[in-house]
Structure formats: C-alpha cells, structure tokens
Amino acid sequence: MQERTNNAGVKCLKCKREAEIKLSYADLCVNCFCSQVEKRIRKAVREFNMIDKKDKIVAGISGGKDSAVMLFNLKRLQDRMGFKLEALLIDEGIAGYRSECKKKAQKLCKELKVKLHIVTFKKETGKTLDEMIKKRDKLTDKKVKTNLGACSICGVFRKYLLNKKAKELKATKLAIGHNADDVAQTFLMNIMRSEVKRMKRFSPAMDETTDFVPRIKPLIFVPERENAIYAMQKNLAFELRECPYAKESFRGEVKNFLNQTEQKYSGIKFNVLNSYLKLGREFENCEKIMASNNENSAEKGLKGKEPKKCIECGENTSTEKCKACQIRELLCVKSSN
Ligand code: SF4
Ligand code: ZN
Q1: How far apart are the first and last CA of the chain?
Q2: In a domain, 332, yes or no
Q3: Consecutive sets of 10 residues in the chain, 337 residues long: mean pLDDT of each?
Q4: 10 Å Cβ neighbour count for 300?
Q5: Long-range CB contacts for residues 3-6, cutoff 8 Å, separation at least 24
Q6: Torsion angle of the four alpha carbons 94, 98, 100, 104, in this order, in degrees rounded to the nearest 10
Q7: How are strands ordered across the β-sheet holding 115-120?
Q8: Which of 245, 250, 253, 331 is the best mutation target for the ligand 1 pocket, counting ligand atoms within 8 Å of the beta carbon and taking the most?
C-alpha cells in the first residue's frame, strides 16, 4: 500500500511541513500522523480507565496490523507506566495463512521483547479450524443444518481460549486489537441480528463477571486504514493478507456496506461508533440503577441471579452448555461420520 501523495507542495494540516499522508479529512506529515494515532490510543486508555500500573496485561495478537499497532503502543505505555505485558496468539489452524501470521507475530514480539504464548485449536479441541469446517460441510451434505459460518466457529473458540489462557496467565486485563471499524461493524451486526444484550459485552473497557478477564480495546478510536498506515510507517512486522474465510462472513458484508457508505457520506463510521459509545453509557446507567435495586432486594432477602455455569466445562454461559462445548460436540468429537 502506497500512502504518500504525489502532490508535492501540499502542506500538513498541523505543522505546515510537507504532507505525505492523505486522509479523507486531512493531509498530514508522517510525524503528525503518527502522533495523532498515538494520541487516540492514549485517549481511549484514559477515557475508559483501561490500564492501571498494577495490571498484568495480556495482549491478544494475531500477526495482523491492528494487534501489531496495539502491542507496539502498549509496550510504549508499559515503559512509562510499568504494568506487566505479555502477548497471546491463538492458532486456529488455517492452512497457508495463520502460520505466516504466527511468524510475523513472533518477529514483532522478539523485537519488542514481549513474551509470546501460543495456544492452538488442535491441542485444545482436537481439531484445527480447517478440520472443523470440513466436518461442518460433511454435515451440510447430509442435510444437517448447523447454521455455523467459519467465523462463528472460530470466534467462539478464540474468545473461549483467549479467556482461558489469560486466566491461566493471571492476567488482570485482556487487550484486544479491535479498531474503530471493527466496533462500528459489530454494533451494526448486533442491531441487524437483534442481539442487543451483546452490545454490553462489547464495551471498550468492561468489567465482566468474575470468570471473564476484563477486556480492553485501546484501538477503539483508530480507523482500520490508519492502523495499516501507522504499522507501515513504523515498520512493524505484520501479515497483510486476509484470512481465507473472511469472504464468507457476515462481517465482510457489513464492512463493505460501511466502507461504501463512508465514501458517499464522510464521517458515517465515526457516527456509528459514537452512537455505540452513547448507548454504552446509557447501559451503564441502567445497570447502576439495577445494581442498587438488586442490593435493596438482597437486603429484603430476594437474591439476584447467580451466573450460570456450563455443565461441561464450568465456564460462564447463558444456556446449560456453553457455545464452545456445543460446537465441540458437533464438530470435534470423533464419530463414524
Ligand atoms: Fe477466524 Fe473469520 Fe477471523 Fe478468519 S476471518 S480468523 S475465520 S474470525
Ligand atoms: Zn462449556
């Protein structure tokens, strides 16, 4: 990707030196552009109280540009604040793709001197993602409806394993490289699927129940394209190629829709993001009211609901068996099929 403009003579909006980066809303020099990205990350960390110096942060990385930018900036913050920082990569087993990403992640962690842990689907579930997809397709051929896209299967196990390993590592926070585009997409997807409750779980710095390591999203104010430019300008090791399953995802379609709309109506993505943040604050207020009502009920002997535990693995769940255990049973357990 070449981001330098050929427009010699165009000035940086901030410092008036020669502009080298052309964004839809401004022309900037490399220095001003990079400090703008860094400022946005610090703003997110500050605004949502994401990090305390006593924290042990485990950064979920993928070998892609977003988590590379996140880890690079967390490392810089660590040097100033003194919290503990390690990285965690989940290897789903996607042939020809994840192994390349893994190499980039290993290189980045080596350069940044951050300890990297790797967890594989194969070891944890008995199957790679590729093998699970084959099994799903076999079931589909036999007219068994699974309603499971590759990204749904992948997402469930990735989330499950990130949390499991982060707990083992005694992390106080799990950092996720979701950028502004990801957040806007997820928000729209939740609306389209009428999954309003999920929006709460998507908050930028959330305090989940005791079984979940609280997740933070330091890149929430940085658009995807700017992450890519920043990663290139800083020469960070990252894999540019997209996951081969991305094209079969609902997210891919929402992403295209948002990108096309943004081209016509500049600023739309940030509007979606801001709507999500405003709603998040409303949720928080409602929760505070509900919590105080629960306290009153508890005083009167009416206890609030305890979170349910999965009967198989003991993780928190809203159903009897958690989603990961349900999929494992369907796609990972050996059978004559
Ligand atoms: Fe997993 Fe889908 Fe992301 Fe590929 S695109 S890594 S399958 S969630
Ligand atoms: Zn379970």
Answers
A1: 45
A2: no
A3: 58 95 93 98 95 97 97 97 97 94 98 98 95 92 84 93 95 96 92 77 54 91 96 96 87 92 91 89 71 60 63 84 91 65
A4: 8
A5: 3/229, 3/232
A6: 180
A7: 115-120, 84-91, 56-61, 173-176, 215-216
A8: 245
Round to whole Å and give the CA distance between 297 and 286.
16
- Decide if 316 is inside a domain: no
Which residues is 120 bridged to in the sheet? 91
Q: Which pLDDT score is estimated for 278?
A: 87
Distances (CA, A) of 210 to 39, 85, 163, 193, 316: 31, 21, 11, 27, 9
Q: Which residue owns the Cα nearest ligand 1 atom 8?
A: 151
Of residues 9, 23, 87, 12, the one with CA closest to residue 229: 23
Residue 313: Cβ-neighbour burial (10 angstroms; 0-12, 13-18, 19+): middle
Ligand nearest to the CA of 91: 1
Nearest-angstrom CA–CA distance, 237 and 69: 10
Contact 23, 266 (CB under 8 A): no
Ligand nearest to the CA of 151: 1
Q: Whose CA is nearest to atom 2 of ligand 1?
A: 151
Place of tokens 């880890």: 71
| Ligand 1 binding site (Cβ under 6 Å of any ligand atom) | 92, 150-151, 154-155, 243, 245-246, 249
For residue 188, give the CATH number of its domain: 3.40.50.620
- Structural domains counted in the chain: 1
Structural domain including 160 reads 47-285
Q: What is the pLDDT at residue 336?
A: 43
Angle at 90 between CA 202 and CA 105, to 5 degrees: 105
Tokens of 185: 């997409």
Q: CA 107, CA 91: separation in Å to the nearest integer? A: 16
